[in-house]
Amino acid sequence: MSSNAHDHDEERPWFLAHHFDTVGQQMSSAKLGMWLFACTELLMFSGLFLAYFILRKMYPEMLLTASEELNKTLGGLNTIVLLFSSYTMALGVRAAQTNNKKALERNLIITIVCAFIFLIVKYFEYSAKIHHGLLPGDLFAAAEHGYHLPKYSKVFYGLYFTMTGLHGVHVVVGIGVLTWILIRARRSEFSSQNYVAVENAGIYWHIVDLVWIFLFPLLYLVK
Amino acid sequence: MSDDKNHEAVEPSYLTAKKGLMSWLITVDHKRIGLMYLAATMFFFLVAGLLAIALRTELFTGQQDFMSAQTYNKVFTLHGAIMVFLFIIPSVPAAMGNFVLPLMLGAKDVAFPKLNLLSFYIYCIAAIMLVMTLLLGSLDTGWTFYTPYSKSTGSAVIMATMGAFVAGFSSILTGLNFVVTVHKMRAPGMTWNRMPLMIWALYATALIQIMATPVLAITLFLLIIERTLNIGIFDPAMGGDPVLYQHFFWFYSHPAVYIMILPGFGIISEIITVHSRKHIFGYRAIAMSSVAIAVISFIVWGHHMFVSGQSELAGVVFSFLTFAVAVPTAIKVFSWVATLYGGSIRYTTPMWYGLVFLWTFTIGGLTGVYLGTLSVDVHLHETYFVVAHFHYVMVGGTVVAFLGGLYHWWPKFFGRMYNETAGKISALLVFIGFNMTFLTQFFLGHQGMPRRYYAYLPEYEVMHQVSTIGSWILALGLFTVLGTLVMALKNGERAPANPWKAVSLEWQTASPPIEHNFHMTPRVTGSPYDFPEIDKSAGAHH
């Protein structure tokens, strides 16, 4: 007995791609693919975290003093903003699953706004650092601005800008992805049968949040 | 398994279903994407191969002939970088795997066809970047881009590392696609234990691609930042650690060695069993050893750094773990030999390559154990012994398996048979040329000839000359392969659907297959290695 390959097109929902047999197969494939992608993201950041820990082990005093110059208030504010946006993202996925188009659009917009707030706060943080010469490598000019930081502090700032910069790029990409999902939501593409794209965008956004949850205490708080 | 011969004449093949250049450039058909990868990887194999011949020719005498020291450095760097990133890594999985994986699973395509096409174009961008370093002309770090030298030498390093960085994304996307395809797209009845061993090998490879490549990405990213912003993380002058770069690099690049060889194991598992008409010996052992190799590959990277200043304890542990890789690898080799034993061996061209593989790969594997031995490695490190070892694994292993796979699946790719005599001559030339080139290098290395030098002392001259002549014979063999396969396209006999009387699903559809692979989704009821002859005999085993 064999199931049929590519007849019965009239029974297939419009969003089911030609090479899948069922909607369930398509959805679980997309989700598995997204989780694997999430793994690659975490592994990529893990390299930076490892570099951080090695730097910390080599120069614990330097790291302690240099990290004191980071703005804990703004970092904390950004943490709250991102955590809140993860919450609205989760609500958005739920709204898609329950055919609530209005709530889906509203939650996506709030999430995108939060992402912009995060970037704006980051902009103020970065400008302060640039203003005080707390910069990576050759650009490091803290001494001229009256700071007395230990030797090799510029390596810490190099790592700070690399880690938060790469994370920031992910936030920018996230804004793009969420905007694309919002446009599709406006076109009423999603339903309780077809919401996997929303869910995958959500997984991506949670990864962005998750990385920050580790970046913030390690760079700003840990003594 | 379902049989759909009665439809065969009706529907056009994937090659003729759509016409025109655009139908290829925007195709999402895994078979066409596989062939585009095949053409691209073969092209870069040719480019990097010609660079290798230039290197060997320069080494024919101990003095400078036609390359300066600096040119020699650039040529061996490009040879290595192109071979690794543009040929070996994508050759079997992305080119051949793309074609056969969905067919072997009984699927209509990979799980994400558009992502598959995207990964091909990302590969093309990476290729352009790496080739552009030729024009920028100052890449002389070797393919490993070790710091701190890679920080101070010419500016082409940025372009080259960006090329490798981008190639990594292509590799990750292919791996991700394959893992999801294997999990979600298997035909009804295709249980994990009924999957062909090629699938198991590609699956294990894909896992490594997903888990190791991101670390390479971040390593190269840090190197680019290091060069542009001078952040100092790898620079001892600024308080950074150059050995950290080596840890990062080999954390990817050692598993990457298995990205290169595991798919080759898969091909050999298919060839040996199909062409000896015998059920594979130790199916589960071979399948599980692929996964075991993938796991162990992540914890042996330190054996590249025995003399780099890691702790003695780390050296001992890495040495022990390296020996552990030999166990699953040996399980495979013994199982292949046991499959041959008592089999009804057909000396087809793929089988010849399979036998060449058993010989050359075993030498490559065993010399790996020498180099994994701490004290021996201190003597042999940075000599031709290392060069010979990895060429025995990469060329004697992967490339030979790749060539065998080309002959094995060529009838399926294009629906044409090749000339057996020419195929066998190519296998013989490759075998002789390869062993002449690299067996001598074991002796050279043991006598102390260091790698990466364009000139050498007179006492090494005879062996270098044997090696160079061997490389010319190897090149002749590879051009014979090219000629045989191209001639097959031009005027080869029409291939039947199943010329080897194999049981796995890719042979149960037309040669070349129709656009959607199968008329009816096949239903699998047994092992891919239950050959009809065996079913009839009373002593069938498994």
Helix percent band of chain A: over 70%
* Helical fraction of chain B: 55-70%
Provide the β-strand percentage band of chain A: under 5%
Radius of gyration of chain A: 22 Å
What's the CATH H-level homologous superfamily of chain B? Cytochrome c oxidase-like, subunit I domain
Question: Could you say what the CATH topology of chain B is called?
Answer: Cytochrome C Oxidase, Chain A
The appropriate CATH architecture of chain B is: Up-down Bundle
Structural class of chain B: mainly alpha
By DSSP (H or I, 4+ residues per run), the number of helices of chain B equals: 16
Described by its quaternary structure, the protein is heterodimer
Instruction: Summarize the largest interface: chains and residue counts.
Output: A-B, 45 and 47 residues
CATH architectural name of chain A: Up-down Bundle
Structural class of chain A: mainly alpha
Main sheet makeup of chain A: none
CATH superfamily of chain A: Cytochrome c oxidase, subunit III, four-helix bundle
What's the order of the H and E elements of chain A?
Answer: HHHHHH
CATH domain class name of chain A: Mainly Alpha
The CATH topology assignment of chain A is Four Helix Bundle (Hemerythrin (Met), subunit A)
- Give the number of DSSP strands of chain A: 0
Domain Heme-copper oxidase subunit III family profile (chain A): 31-223
Protein name (chain A): Cytochrome C oxidase subunit III
Keywords (chain A): Membrane, Transmembrane, Transmembrane helix
Main location (chain A): membrane
